[in-house]
Amino acid sequence: MHRRLRRPAALVLLAPLVLLVACGDDDEAAPPSTTASTTTTLPAMPTDFDWWHAVGKVPLGGGWELGPCEGDDPTLCYEHEDGRHGIIELFRFSAPADFNLNAHASQFVSDFVTDRKAGCGEAYRVVAEPIEALDLPDGPARRYGFSGGAEGAPDTERTIQWAGVREGVLVIVVLTGYDPGSCVTGEGEGTLQDQEEVLPGIQALLLAAGLPNPAGP
Question: Is there a contact between 217 and 54 (Cβ–Cβ < 8 Å)?
Fold first, then answer.
């Protein structure tokens, strides 16, 4: 039976409220990820992509497309030509001038270690991915995340986030995947394989168009 634990999209709402006081430099990266990469031929990405008001679909390569979801939630949907699908979630929060992205990324993973140990058991494994500094068209950003699963078993969840401060606003793009048997119940996210396949396209889109507009939807 699945436990109802905090999902990355939910915990990220709490983390910035705690981390707004973080300051100073924290350049120590987390341990490397054990997730294998997938080689994908990527199409040219639009430089004017509107994350909040996407119109039409953007090819991500490998048979995947990204476009608007039905409804008013700040999400985007990715879908494969074979019917597989998942979601991208968008968030924005107020941030002070001295907000530290490295500290935010490190604390994000630390919070999930605590959450998963409490909800999934002390033997549950959470492995942080390296904090990667990115230069996007609209400014600096960080990519960070974690993978997790039962000790001695394959990973069953993985979360990747891209975050940056724009005009005093912390803007975050979230890509999460869950496999069957995960300790956490997903809500529309794709599998880890789906996530791995769309990841190069999502990052390429961020490198071309930058983060979502800090003004929001």
Answer: no
- Residue of higher predicted confidence among 113 and 193: 193
Q: b/e map of 120-153 (b: 16 or more CB within 10 Å)?
A: beeebbbbbbebeebebebeebbbbbbbbbbeee
Q: How many other CB atoms sit within 10 Å of the CB of residue 98?
A: 10
> CA 77 to CA 75: how far, in whole Å?
7
Q: Report pLDDT digits (tens) over 34-43.
A: 444 445 588 9
Assessment of whether the complete model's pTM goes beyond 0.85? no
Q: Are 174 and 101 in contact (CB under 8 A)?
A: no
Cα 117 to Cα 98, 111, 121, 149: the distances in Å are 31, 10, 5, 11
For residue 145, the surrounding DSSP H or E stretch is: strand 139-149
Closest to 153 in 3D by CA, of 193, 183, 187: 183
Q: Encode pLDDT of 72-114 as tens digits.
A: 677 899 999 999 999 999 999 999 878 899 999 999 889 988 9
Token pair of 157 as six digits: 């969840």
| pLDDT at residue 2 greater than cutoff 60 | no
CB 216 within 8 A of CB 51: no
For residue 125, the one-letter residue type is R
Q: How far is CA 64 from CA 84, 89, 108, 110, 193, in A?
A: 9, 17, 29, 32, 12
